[in-house]
Amino acid sequence: MATPGVDACAGLVDGPRGVVTSIVDGDTLLLDNGLVVRLIGIQAPHLALGREGLEDWPKSEASKQALADLALNKPVQLKYGGAQTDRYGRSLAQVFVAGETGVWLQQGMLAAGMARVYSFPDNRACLPDLFSAEAKARASKLGIWADPYYTVRRADRPAVFDSLAGHFELVEGRVVKSEKTGGRVYLNFGRYFKEDFTAVIDTRALALFTADRLDPLQLGGALVRVRGWIDLRDGPRVDITHPEQIELLATP
């Protein structure tokens, strides 16, 4: 029987099968064949796991338990839609519980509000379906979306970012100006680039926009949501490495 997840992600490449023997955190699990699997396409609240200088994010234990409820001791099928391993040797896969229920773990975690969409330029499969699941949970304030730590930030309030350097954030606002300088496109959300929020699209990312027939220079005046890691160089900013980091909410 075809599963909803598989249908939604047609074109993925079959990977190994295994039984989930352990849950590391809300987006990482271990299989009985020895594989460590990172659920690509989502980011669950981080657990410090004893690593020096790191702290547990809010809801991290709840997220780990949510993944355990979905997958622990169950047979799963890995499917690949991009780079298959990371620098740590983990498998980067969309993961489906085998059997008639056809649970897609990434979609299940997002639908429960226990993770956010988190994509990479070399792993962009299934994202429309993942964004849809996240949006429904966010609108219903499920899981992490009821916690202020995960609030979608307003781009027109740049002072809030002073304490968010190094945080992964979702930021919404209207692009005041879109301009290209030195091979990069800058989406400015205010008039003072050294104080106001900015999304910066680098040269390699622009090639992906071009391949997808998208022109970020047309985003001036648009209402958008961007997601990424906050940097405070020349004011608060997010570096954009691929188009899916920018969601168009309303045209100019």
What does this 3D model show about the protein?
- The protein has two domains: 4-146, OB fold (Dihydrolipoamide Acetyltransferase, E2P) (Beta Barrel), CATH 2.40.50; 152-250, Nucleic acid-binding proteins (OB fold (Dihydrolipoamide Acetyltransferase, E2P)).
- A hairpin with a 4-residue loop joins strand 2 (28-31) and strand 3 (36-39).
- It has 252 residues and is α+β, with helices and mostly antiparallel strands.
- It contains five helices and 15 strands.
- The protein is globular, with a radius of gyration of 19 Å.
- The chain has helices spanning 4-8, 60-71, 105-111, 127-139, 203-211; strands spanning 13-25, 28-31, 36-39, 41-43, 75-80, 91-97, 116-118, 153-154, 168-174, 177-181, 184-188, 198-201, 223-231, 237-240, 246-250.
- Strands 8, 9, 10, 11, 12, 13, 14 and 15 form an eight-stranded mixed sheet that branches.
Keywords:
OB fold (Dihydrolipoamide Acetyltransferase, E2P); alpha+beta; 252 residues; five-stranded mixed β-barrel; 2 domains; 15 strands; disordered N terminus
